[in-house]
């Protein structure tokens, strides 16, 4: 059980108890002395303790390797329901005990569900017995939640009401359309919240079975960050998590991106168009500084486009274990007849505009700005930022993040390597999505546009310019 020491690097549904005290977050400033220690328990639970000397609070994240992609057939939304129900009480705490005890200590507790993981987060001031109290509380929630039928049904009604309110949001409709289109035959198609007619059938028996199957040692990672001795944090965590049941490790579900064209008629104030390019570079490849650069380049490029047109442009990027996500360009217009033109422009941004836009000089300018922003983020990171970055580094990139290594990777990134990376994304076949009034009749035109020879020729030009590994 040897400890290893590392230096840390500085579309989720989030729920939890808001407290009058607000979230306990303290500015730390960059301190090169803090470090993370790791311990693996006999039951497979991984513990990570990060020491931040200047922190005034302690932060916990317990991340479980199970999410909505693991919802059973016919029970889409079960993982999200489970996360809600975990706050309804344990064998020794009621729902009121959980929320009031955290609030009374000036802390905050919440949780979130994603496609491939569920996170439970707690923050408390660094004082008194809060390290022991907080670790005991969050371990109790993970291990000993009680599943009571009437309370479960009331919580499901709360979820259904929230789900219904979200359906009024046009952006949510566009994201749902994207999920249903690019993952139409896979678990992601129904989204994280799932389908109301399915999650309303979830029972206490379903939740107990889900707990026994997935809330086992090899699927649990515990991250604690604060101004305590890392060995003390690890010892306290071990005392509370060493008796968690062992079981098989849950592996992420491999997903396939379908580059289809989809339209949905809906009475909206504006029409929405999205072009989404698959970007499946995940934990197998480790940290990729190109993503930092791509976001900055794309946003700068689209900002300049706004200066000449009245439509709105944006970029949306998602990240999960197995599909780092979609690089998306979004445009809206109040004129339905311009939908095909908008998609033509968005395709052109990926295949022509951004390729010509990124000159070697501009690349160096944006890279220097990105490096400065990275350093500033490191300096401004608070305890909550640090524990989240450590958790993301371990869960998505397979290791505790290293500030200096990541900055060096960005500094060493060459123009040609970046252009290869960008080209490797935009030569791939995208999905095209349109939402709004009268867009259904435009589907044949959008499919024809996607297959237009001019875009095939442009992809060929990009491939010819690419050299070496992307």
Could you explain how this protein is built, in words?
- There is one protein chain.
- The chain has helices at 78-85, 95-104, 130-144, 149-166, 170-182, 196-199, 204-214, 230-241, 289-306, 339-357, 360-380, 383-397, 403-412, 415-426, 443-450, 453-465; strands spanning 4-6, 13-17, 36-40, 46-51, 57-64, 108-113, 118-125, 220-226, 261-265, 271-278, 312-317, 326-333, 431-436.
- The protein has 470 residues and is of the alpha+beta class.
- The chain folds into 2 domains: 4-241, Metalloenzyme, LuxS/M16 peptidase-like (Cytochrome Bc1 Complex, Chain A, domain 1); 261-465, Metalloenzyme, LuxS/M16 peptidase-like (Cytochrome Bc1 Complex, Chain A, domain 1, 2-Layer Sandwich).
- The strands form 2 sheets. It has an 8-stranded mixed sheet with strand order 1-3-4-8-5-7-6-2, sandwiched between helices. A 5-stranded mixed sheet has the order 9-13-10-12-11, sandwiched between helices.
- The longest helix is centred in the last third of the chain and has 21 residues, at 360-380.
- Mean pLDDT is 83; it is low at 1-33 and 310-324.
